[in-house]
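Weekly structure sync, notes
Attendees: PL, DS, HV (note-taker this week)

Item 1: Aldehyde dehydrogenase family protein
DS walked through the input record. Source organism listed as Arthrobacter cavernae. Sequence as pasted into the shared doc:
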Amino acid sequence: MTYATPAHNVIRTSTTGTASTLFINGAWEPAASGAVRAIRNPADGELVATVSEAGREDAERAIAAARAAFDSGVWSSVPAPERGTFLLKVAAGLRERREKFARAESLDTGKRMVESRIDMDDIAACFEYFGRLAGQQAGRMVDAGNPAVVSKIVYEPVGVCGLITPWNYPLLQAAWKIAPALAAGCTFVLKPSELTPSTAILAMQLLQDLGLPDGVANLVTGPGAEAGAPLSEHPAVDLVSFTGGLETGKRIAAAAAGTVKKVALELGGKNPNVVFADADFDAAVDNALNGAFVHSGQVCSAGARLVVEESIAERFVDELVRRARDIRLGGPFDDAAESGPLISAAHRDKVNAYVQRGIQEGARLRTGGAAPHGEKYDGGFYYQPTVLDRVQRGMSVVTDEAFGPVVTVETFRTEDEAVATANDTIYGLAGAVWTQDAGKAQRVASRLRHGTIWINDYHPYLPQAEWGGFGQSGVGRELGPTGLAEYQEAKHIYQNTSPQVTGWFADHGKEN
Ligand SMILES: NC(=O)c1ccc[n+]([C@@H]2O[C@H](COP(=O)([O-])OP(=O)(O)OC[C@H]3O[C@@H](n4cnc5c(N)ncnc54)[C@H](O)[C@@H]3O)[C@@H](O)[C@H]2O)c1
Ligand SMILES: C[N+](C)(C)CC=O
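Item 1 (cont.): predicted structure, written out as tokens:
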């Protein structure tokens, strides 16, 4: 198969310079300024779509629509099981349109079709999970210790949600927010990455086709500083849920403080993949490749730090390097490709700068460290899978999230040293432990300060299992029951069925 051309375009956006991709109060609109952005496939630079480039004014109109829809009760008053049924229809719609959505995702991100198809399945599973959960949150009775009192906890929607998402898993990260927000009865404004808006547009079309009331779901496509910032600043937004980089997350938390809105942050990671000498060697090497290089390492939970027991380190890294050299790079429709391009030239420059700085600081480059050569790669933003060993703690390539196909190698001699090395990061998103000793696996897993620990595996995540970070990897959790609770307020309703005079204050005006 050859790379996609604009003829593969699968969404209703223009390739001629006009666009109406803002979805506000049930209508498709251009940006107030008329600005547009060209979306290009990072695998070959081909024009994929032209979308509206929203600014503050557009975001504020979308917020007003979401506020009015929430306050009208048009969605929050729909019984929770019916909201759940709607989510199940969304899941079914996604499954029917899987290929169309996957192509749009691959064209925007450059990721291989096989990966985008998996993403679409995971997205449908997310809607199914929250669809089933929606009807099960009945609240609970509380024993007030007084038979005359009826005391209960009910869960109400938090209100208007600002949802801000990144480019690496565009619709998946949006779905992890949209599904629980709708299940809880919230309304929202979604601001996807300006680089990868296409599947968000398709998703809004699906919600519209399925009859979601106007104003419940709103979309602004555009850059963060203009279209995104109002979602964290505006007093009419009750919650901002953000997935993206650490520095943006800090800005959003600071901006949200002005109106004391709820903040959920899913940020980056610098995730340790800890391999003990007694691990299944072949499985551990294979999964170290998977952990570091799938989607060219542009994964928040990428196993970018290999932490390997000294006694097997040389053999392990030799094998990792041998196999990393063989990884075939290519575009979304190249069936032979095993990994794809980076998202942009600027991002590739950033990844390369980390690698070169690491080498200058004394790391040894075992493979990679440059863009690949050849006609096939011209016009795309490819970077070779890269392995650096002999790194030192404190080097920026070890501490910072490079977010590319780069793995560093650290070694340890004892279990304590393995734990200390793995925990030596400001982040705390995910990590893995490889050993055939079940006791050691559980011991180490319990000491690692990361939100997800895989034992003898790498990368799986489940809609029913909470996802999120310790430390500076974020605040709050997505998925699982906690992922729904993020979009709810717990309210205590206390009813005294037999009101009594308390006598706390004497009635000084009353005759004896
Ligand atoms: N923890 C997770 O589950 C998870 C999942 C996916 C990606 N990520 C992280 O996302 C990052 C990569 O994504 P990115 O480069 O798109 O991140 P980013 O922080 O640059 O952008 C994320 C989103 O924020 C918007 N934005 C930027 N500035 C803003 C502002 N001032 N106000 C409001 N919105 C603003 C962007 O337009 C985009 O939509 C990595 O750090 C990765 O680890 C985390
Ligand atoms: C959360 N996850 C693993 C799907 C994507 C992270 O970038």
